[in-house]
Design brief:
The protein is built from five helices and two strands, in the order αααααββ. It is mostly helical and 87 residues long. The chain has a two-stranded antiparallel sheet with strand order 1-2. α1 packs across α2. The longest helix is centred in the first third of the chain and has 16 residues.
Length: 87
């Protein structure tokens, strides 16, 4: 259903590309890591998968070292003992 909505507003997009990105994003948003550690958390492996999808479909023009772009520093600052600290 989500890809149908995207295709409605961006009919020239590649449906398979949209589905691939959605799968990676869902895994990062509501996968085992976020269930264990909280919303927003992801592993370097997940970021690498996202990078690879973007590279394969032209979302980025060249490969980069994901470890230079990925950090969980902000998340470490907003979680205490596994609990989100919110104002």
């Amino acid at each position: 259903a989500a890809s149908d909505i995207v295709m409605e507003f961006a009919p020239n997009e590649d449906r398979e590309h949209q589905l691939s990105m959605l799968r990676v994003e869902l895994d990062m948003a509501d996968g085992p890591v976020s269930l264990e550690k909280g919303i927003g958390w992801a592993t370097p492996h997940q970021w690498q998968a996202f990078h690879d999808t973007l590279l394969a479909y032209g979302g980025i023009s060249r490969a980069i070292d994901v470890n230079t772009a990925f950090t969980d520093k902000i998340l470490q600052g907003v979680y205490r003992n596994g609990q989100l600290v919110w104002p």
